[in-house]
Specification:
Number of strands of chain A: 12
Radius of gyration of chain A: 21 Å
Distance between the termini of chain B: 11 Å
Order of helices and strands of chain B: HHHHHHHHHHHHHH
Number of helices of chain B: 14
Largest interface: A-B, 29 and 20 residues
Helix content of chain A: 25-40%
Structural class of chain A: alpha/beta
CATH topology of the largest domain in chain A: Rossmann fold
CATH class of the largest domain in chain A: Alpha Beta
CATH superfamily of the largest domain in chain A: P-loop containing nucleotide triphosphate hydrolases
Strand content of chain B: under 5%
Oligomer: heterodimer
Order of helices and strands of chain A: EEEHEEHEHHHHEHEHEEHHHEE
């Protein structure tokens, strides 16, 4: 049994807006084991990014706040930690790469300065050693002419190169966990493949655990060991990549997989799940997916199913699987 | 960068020529006979003719312009009708006085304005933010002559903390070399007078700096708020940087560019001389110099004053453009 690097238990992150309290993350449980790539998938607005920002406690506050649950990093709960202790963790034990490589680097500092800054902040290296380390990191992520690139500004680099720089920066301190929030969404397809390849290589060579957030099932199939499917602030299904793709249990997962176009079949129209993601609110009842579900039953509207283990590594939150209807009152 | 600088300076040439044309034609814009306007209706025909000759008004205008430009290029701004002294020589001390006051005012305005703007953005919607923005709003809408008078009333007359007028203690003056009294007193090693010079600067520079300060504060705040919500600020936080470093290192530099523009423009307009403030504080600056020239219809002085101020304004704009490039590497002037 692998050791979990990150264990999220019943996490609740709510946003307090003028129109009321929005439970963006509403009781999420997740585990990322060491050396593993966990994919977190779901539509826009399902809470995957907020979950990842919650781990670093970078949810913009106000309006957002973690209102409940535990985030255990190697067994240590991050939720009660203060700002100063969190700073020691960010970029050091847990680092993050973002969706927009074009805007995620500071335009007024050189690539090198931005990596060196991180290294010196956490390790207190000399400027010279930090610079050498930065060059080494740039080489590691496959940047040619690293010696020169280190002194260039972000605007002098292409999107793919910038994302490599972001990755170099985030692994420069050899973190326990790398959170990649849609790292390839903004890139060309050919560059996407290179970046994914790079992340997988780092995972395999350095054993860095990766939490990969994406809405692209193709990326998941290629990269991940395990998958958690999120819907409306909750995990609805979790299992190995094999299980999720070959026998998805939750109707939402089934819908997601069905909506991926396939090369070997001809369809007039692409499948899409009818309806939209619900507007989140505190007094929602029943299964979040019920209004869009093709198998909806009466119980679905009344009460929320539990996330129940179906097989050893496969759980699902659905009345069709598991919990007897009498349990739910 | 150097080729940009060259190009930028070359572009200035037509601007400067245009300025001289406008300034030159001021005297011709006077309705009727300039000589009569300058000397008054009771002047004799003889004295008017003498003035026309002195100003070269009896020559064809193209010839006049070439003479004017020729003199300008040799640093000759003409002679004051009222005092009969060369204007270049006469104006210099006034210019220095304005320069010193402007520098002090902008130092105050930039330091207070930028920091108030940063803190307001950092603690957005806090009591500090509200208080600072209310002060800034009052600041931009305040008539400065009134502010100057109130300052004198309170700090000079009621509290006797600061002198109300002048530039230094005239009972024991320091010999003036540069006419920048701060530098003069330091050169002379007169620390006691340096202190009084600084004290004389405080009230007028606050009066003059209040509007720029308010504009800078508001500009910094809005620019800062925009930058603080950008992706690279999130990256900086995700790297584990402290809020202080995030704000003062990553955000400030990025929000400086629009602020730089405002600082440049305000400096330019303050250097043009603030007639009201200079009058209230008996500050012998360019504003007052030109004002006196206007009241005595000393046209050569008015022309030269306007020309110098316009020149300074153009120069400061050039400086701001160059500073952009120093702050932001994305501004690559060589490509432009």
């Amino acid at each position: 049994m692998k050791q979990p690097v990150l264990r999220i238990e019943d996490l609740h992150t709510h946003f307090f807006t003028d129109r009321g309290e929005v439970p963006a993350v509403d009781g999420v449980d997740l585990v990322v084991n060491s050396g593993e790539v966990l994919g977190v998938v779901g539509e826009s607005g399902c809470g995957k990014s907020v979950t990842s920002l919650s781990v670093l406690k970078l949810v913009p506050s106000p309006p957002g706040r973690i209102v409940g649950g535990r985030i255990l990093l190697k067994g240590k709960d991050l939720v009660p930690l203060g700002e100063k202790e969190m700073r020691g963790i960010r970029g050091n034990l847990v680092s993050m790469i973002f969706q927009e490589p074009m805007t995620s680097l500071n335009p007024l500092f050189t690539v090198g300065q931005q990596i060196i800054e991180t290294v010196r902040l956490h390790r207190g290296m000399s400027r010279k050693a930090a610079r050498a380390h930065a060059v080494e990191m740039l080489q590691k992520v496959g940047i040619p002419r690293a010696e020169e690139i280190v002194d260039e500004y972000p605007h002098q680099l292409s999107g793919g190169m910038r994302q490599r720089v972001m990755i170099a920066m985030s692994i420069s301190l050899n973190p326990e966990l790398l959170i990649a929030d849609e790292p390839t969404t903004a890139l060309d397809v050919t560059i996407q493949a290179q970046i994914l390849d790079l992340i997988r290589r780092l995972n395999e060579e350095q054993g860095t655990a990766v939490m990969l957030i994406t809405h692209d099932l193709g990326v998941v199939a290629e990269m991940c060991h395990r998958v958690a499917v999120m819907y409306a602030g909750k995990v609805v299904e979790e299992g190995s990549v094999y299980d999720i793709f070959n026998h998805p249990l939750h109707p939402y997962t089934q819908g997601l997989i069905q909506s991926v176009p396939r090369m070997n079949e001809h369809r007039e129209r692409l499948y899409s799940i009818p309806g939209n993601v619900p507007v989140l609110s505190k007094d929602m009842q029943g299964c979040r997916f019920a209004p869009r579900c093709p198998h909806v039953m009466e119980v679905c509207m009344r009460s929320l199913p539990e996330l129940i283990r179906q097989e050893e590594h496969h759980s699902c939150r659905c009345w069709l699987h598991g919990s007897s209807q009498e349990d739910a009152v | 960068m150097n080729s940009y600088l060259f190009k930028r300076v070359m572009v200035l040439i037509p601007v400067l020529i245009g300025m001289t044309l406008i300034v030159f034609s001021i005297i011709h814009a006077i309705p009727g006979d300039p000589a009569e306007t300058i000397l008054g209706q009771k002047a004799t025909e003889q004295s008017k003719e003498a003035l026309r000759q002195q100003l070269g008004l009896d020559q064809p205008w193209l010839q006049q312009y070439f003479n004017y430009m020729g003199d300008l290029l040799q640093g000759d701004l003409g002679t004051s009708i009222r005092t009969k002294t060369p204007i270049a020589e006469e104006m210099l001390p006034y210019l220095a006085a304005t320069l010193e006051l402007t520098a002090a005012s902008m130092l105050f305005a930039t330091f207070v304005g930028v920091n108030a703007g940063i803190l307001s953005a950092w603690k957005q919607n806090s009591w500090f933010d509200y208080a600072a923005m209310i002060v800034a709003l009052i600041g931009v809408s305040m008539p400065i002559f009134w502010l100057g008078l109130m300052e004198q009333l309170l700090f000079a007359i009621k509290l006797h903390w600061l002198p109300s007028i002048g530039r230094m203690d005239q009972r024991d003056p320091v010999e003036s070399i540069t006419n920048l009294y701060i530098i003069d007193t330091i050169l002379a090693g007169r620390w006691d007078q340096l202190w009084t010079v600084i004290k004389h600067l405080i009230l007028p520079s606050i009066a003059l700096g209040t509007i720029p300060m308010a504009i800078i504060a508001r500009m910094t705040r809005s620019s800062m708020l925009e930058v603080m919500s950008s992706d690279y600020i999130r990256t900086a936080k995700a790297k584990g940087m402290s809020q202080f470093l995030v704000v003062y290192k990553h955000a400030l530099k990025n929000s400086l560019i629009p602020v730089l523009t405002v600082v440049g423009l305000q400096t330019g307009s303050l250097l043009g001389g603030a007639v009201l403030t200079e009058t209230i504080f008996a500050w012998p600056g360019v504003g007052r110099y030109i004002y006196e020239a206007i009241s005595s219809r000393d046209y050569p002085v008015i022309q030269s004053g306007i020309l110098i101020i316009a020149f300074i304004f153009v120069f400061i704009n050039l400086l701001v453009d160059l500073l952009y490039a120093a702050v932001d590497p994305r501004i690559n002037y060589n490509k432009g």
